[in-house]
Amino acid sequence: SPIMEELATFHDYAFMTMLLISSLVLYALLSTLTTKLTNTNITDAQEMETIWTILPAIILILIALPSLRILYLTDEINDPSFTIKSIGHQWYWTYEYTDYGGLIFNSYMLPPLFLNPGDLRLLEVDNRVVLPIEAPVRMMITSQDVLHSWAIPTLGLKTDAVPGRLNQTVFTA
């Protein structure tokens, strides 16, 4: 999904920033340990103090701005094609396609005895949710009894299902 692409790009950007900072600190540490300090009479280093105070603030801003952009993109709601309501129960999920005549079905996890070779244990279900491609879908997520987590990692989605609260997310597959 476009959101997952943004998350992957941000991860690479933040990782490269961390790598550059770590390399600089390692270089400074090694040069301090391996060289002789000949000039120890420096008493006024205001320029250096200014640099090492302002530079981390600039780096934090350069990391925070793309992060906030992605945060707002994940909460953006663009005129969805249709809505699916997902209700978490203790051992299964109930899905309601409210825009299509109230189609309702339960999705139970398959026991290990019914798994085929290549199926993922604890992830395979008897009735899967069918989603359209390249159409915005709104998921309304709630819970009947306990806390749940509704997630599709490849789309960059994770929304908590809380009893008495209706959370929503919009995504495009």
From TrEMBL:
<feature type="transmembrane region" description="Helical">
    <location>
        <begin position="50"/>
        <end position="72"/>
    </location>
</feature>
<protein>
    <recommendedName>
        <fullName>Cytochrome c oxidase subunit 2</fullName>
    </recommendedName>
</protein>
<feature type="domain" description="Cytochrome oxidase subunit II copper A binding">
    <location>
        <begin position="79"/>
        <end position="173"/>
    </location>
</feature>
<dbReference type="GO" id="GO:0005743">
    <property type="term" value="C:mitochondrial inner membrane"/>
</dbReference>
<feature type="domain" description="Cytochrome oxidase subunit II transmembrane region profile">
    <location>
        <begin position="1"/>
        <end position="78"/>
    </location>
</feature>
<feature type="transmembrane region" description="Helical">
    <location>
        <begin position="12"/>
        <end position="30"/>
    </location>
</feature>
<dbReference type="Pfam" id="PF02790">
    <property type="entry name" value="COX2_TM"/>
</dbReference>
<keyword id="KW-0186">Copper</keyword>
<dbReference type="InterPro" id="IPR036257">
    <property type="entry name" value="Cyt_c_oxidase_su2_TM_sf"/>
</dbReference>
<dbReference type="Pfam" id="PF00116">
    <property type="entry name" value="COX2"/>
</dbReference>
<keyword id="KW-0679">Respiratory chain</keyword>
<dbReference type="GO" id="GO:0042773">
    <property type="term" value="P:ATP synthesis coupled electron transport"/>
</dbReference>
<dbReference type="InterPro" id="IPR011759">
    <property type="entry name" value="Cyt_c_oxidase_su2_TM_dom"/>
</dbReference>
<keyword id="KW-0249">Electron transport</keyword>
<keyword id="KW-0813">Transport</keyword>
<keyword id="KW-0460">Magnesium</keyword>
<keyword id="KW-0812">Transmembrane</keyword>
<keyword id="KW-1133">Transmembrane helix</keyword>
<dbReference type="InterPro" id="IPR008972">
    <property type="entry name" value="Cupredoxin"/>
</dbReference>
<dbReference type="GO" id="GO:0004129">
    <property type="term" value="F:cytochrome-c oxidase activity"/>
</dbReference>
<dbReference type="GO" id="GO:0005507">
    <property type="term" value="F:copper ion binding"/>
</dbReference>
<dbReference type="InterPro" id="IPR045187">
    <property type="entry name" value="CcO_II"/>
</dbReference>
<dbReference type="InterPro" id="IPR002429">
    <property type="entry name" value="CcO_II-like_C"/>
</dbReference>
<keyword id="KW-1278">Translocase</keyword>
<keyword id="KW-0496">Mitochondrion</keyword>
<comment type="similarity">
    <text>Belongs to the cytochrome c oxidase subunit 2 family.</text>
</comment>
<keyword id="KW-0472">Membrane</keyword>
<keyword id="KW-0999">Mitochondrion inner membrane</keyword>
<keyword id="KW-0479">Metal-binding</keyword>
<comment type="function">
    <text>Component of the cytochrome c oxidase, the last enzyme in the mitochondrial electron transport chain which drives oxidative phosphorylation. The respiratory chain contains 3 multisubunit complexes succinate dehydrogenase (complex II, CII), ubiquinol-cytochrome c oxidoreductase (cytochrome b-c1 complex, complex III, CIII) and cytochrome c oxidase (complex IV, CIV), that cooperate to transfer electrons derived from NADH and succinate to molecular oxygen, creating an electrochemical gradient over the inner membrane that drives transmembrane transport and the ATP synthase.</text>
</comment>
